[in-house]
Structures are given as C-alpha cells and as structure tokens.
C-alpha cells in the first residue's frame, strides 16, 4: 500500500512539473483570460506563461479578439500572444543565437562602427 501511495505521489509531482513547462493549451489560455477579468493582477503571470511556455494551439482571429476583450486591449498581453504565435509557427527561427555567434556579430558591428567613425573624422 505504501509503495502504491509513493508511486502515485511521484506520478502527480512529475505531472505537475511537466504541466508547468508544457506549452499552454487553448483551453488553459482561455481560462486564464476569463480569470484576468476578476483578478487583473494576474496579467503578469499570463504574459510570463506565454513567453516561457509558449502555446500549442493555432493563433486565430477569435483568440485575438478574446484576448483584446478580456485583456482590456492591453498592448503587452497582445504582443506576448503574437510572439508566442510566431514561436509556434517557426520554432527554429525563434531560437536565440549561440553565445559565440552573438559575440561575433557584436564584434563585427563594433569594428564597422569604429571604421565608419574614423572615416567620418577624416572627411571633416
């Protein structure tokens, strides 16, 4: 009996942890929007969930309209939803560059800016 209880407890904990990292379902997101009307302070939680977890549903005009109406036409909430929709459509394009790639781009931009600055100084 104790083993069964322990197994069920571990299963429930695993499922709860997975649910917090899995993308938001449409039903979960809609539920959050309706709760937002009663508790406006949860807006930051919804935005954080959209940005961290993403969505697993297709972003439709209906969801956009519901977000506008239940979210009081909040720009930050709409932007977070659109970002999540873009990441859903193109997961590869939404990935951040590696640290090495980012530092290379930054270094090239710095060199170009320095070169242009020196060129402007010689022209004046």
Write up this protein.
There is one protein chain. With 124 residues, the protein is an all-alpha fold. The protein folds into two domains: 92 residues, no CATH class; 27 residues. 76% of the residues lie in helices and 0% in strands. It is built from six helices and no strands. α2 packs parallel to α4 and α3 runs parallel beside α5. The longest helix has 25 residues. About 8% of the residues have low confidence.
First CA to last CA: what distance? 86 Å
Count of separate DSSP helical elements: 6
What is the rounded Rg?
22 Å
Total strands: the figure is 0
Mean pLDDT metric = 85
Percentage of helical residues? over 70%
Keywords:
elongated, single chain, 6 helices
Topology:
Layout: H1 2-21, H2 26-38, H3 43-53, H4 61-70, H5 75-89, H6 99-123
Helix pairs in contact: 2-4, 3-5
Would you summarize the structure shown here?
The protein is mostly helical and 124 residues long.
